[in-house]
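User: Structure please.
Assistant: Input sequence and predicted structure:
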Amino acid sequence: ASVNVMAHFHCELRKLSWSGIPRQVRPITWKLLSGYLPANAERRESTLHRKRQEYFGFIEQYYDSRNDEHHQDTYRQIHIDIPRMSPESLVLQPKVTEIFERILFIWAIRHPASGYVQGINDLVTPFFVVYVFEYIEEEVENFNVSSLQEEVLQNIEADSFWCMSKLLDGIQDNYTFAQPGIQRKVKALEKLVSRIDETVHRHMQQYEVEYLQFAFRWMNNLLMRELPLRCTIRLWDTCQAEPEGFSHFHLYVCAAFLVRWRKEILEEKDFQVRCFFVSCCAVPEPQCVLSLRETPPPSLTCRVEGSVRLH
């Protein structure tokens, strides 16, 4: 009976979260949706305490090895990639840089099948920002993270590590050798677009544009380079509410994102310029693919509705 109750709890939580999660309850909701926290409220505090201790046990066990010959290339690449992340005002804060370096290095050491791959670094940011929101009211981009108490920062770091790990558990083949997961998803996206918008698909064929040219990054970074951070966080509400949100549902989001620009794509004669636009432009917040209202709307009123119809 208790198993059925827990299953019902998760089912209802997903339904409520799909159209957006209010900021004040987003931290605990993400922890529940990811499977980091149990549905049983009586077990949550003990689970948090145990998992946070476990993470810092990994730090003690592994982090000093970052300068060893076997691991120094991994650490060096992480150290190079973090300043390239956004928002710069956040990730360039020394305290945040240190936290991200530890999270990414420990994850890489514990997942030797893939190790660290560029793109994984971006996936820390939404979790970190959402869990900082648990303790502040202002926008995180303008906040001095080092002003938080050390214990609070440690909790945010450990929670971000575990939730990022849960996400990556479902898409790790995106980052193993030759990135087969991404290769499959790009092929699936091409097949999907050919079915739902044959005109766009034929236009791309006519100009010899490979889906891999733009969709690789969409899969590798989960559209984080294309969307403002607030949009990404809102999108992740929905992706985490889907049972296979980052592995399967994300494909449909990418298709909806592509169809969103169909008019511009079809009007473009120099398609390489258009391909650059699709791949590299960031969607301005007023035109964001998702609603940004902090109070969830009755339903999504933008392109992800299309992804549900496709799904």
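The chain has 16 helices and no strands.
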